[in-house]
Amino acid sequence: MTVTTFLASDWYQRLMQLIPDGKLFSLRSVFDGIPRIVQQLPTTLMLTLGGALFGLLLALIFAIVKINRVKILYPLQAFFVSFLKGTPILVQLMLTYYGIPLLLKAINQQWGTGFNINAIPAALFAIVAFAFNEAAY
Predict the structure, then answer these.
(1) How far is Cα 83 from Cα 58, in angstroms, rounded to an integer?
(2) What is the mean pLDDT of residues 119-134?
(3) Which residue among 16, 58, 71, 133 is least crowded, i.e. fewest CB within 10 A of its CB?
(4) CA–CA gap between residue 101 and residue 95 (Å, rounded)
């Protein structure tokens, strides 16, 4: 039995009929969104786990640079971590979603590479933003 079938079964419909429809705030509209939220749960978990995995690897690199105080990389790492801790995750998501394609476009123009910017899935940008955010903390 799929999640959508389970949520669309008879008990859920009866529960929805019992919830009053408010004038200022409708609790029914909150419960109407539950099936759509549950359908997107695998995508949410994939983004979270992907960001966590790559974030831990990046955090390990940050820690090695910080412990060994690598001459050139230490100030860059300190600035990067300070920037990531000081900006909200929504800003970081927008910077990765709009900034990485601009960076790849500049690389394409400068060195004549053939990166196809349009072929990059949006989920990859979210994973990159979550990974950097987790690595900073």
Answers:
(1) 15
(2) 96
(3) 71
(4) 10
Phi, psi of 33 (to 5 degrees): -85, -10
For residue 131, the surrounding DSSP H or E stretch is helix 122-136
Residue 23: pLDDT above 80? no
Question: What does CATH list as the number for 43-136?
Answer: 1.10.3720.10
Angle at the Cα of 74 from the Cα atoms of 71 and 77, rounded to 5 degrees? 150
Burial 23-33 (b: 16+ CB within 10 A, else e): eeeeeeeeeee
pTM of this structure: 0.78
Nearest-angstrom CA–CA distance, 125 and 44 = 14
Phi and psi for 84 in degrees, rounded to 5? -70, -35
User: For residues 133 and 55, is the Cβ–Cβ distance under 8 A?
Assistant: yes
SS3 category, 136: helix
Residue with tokens 């990159």: 128
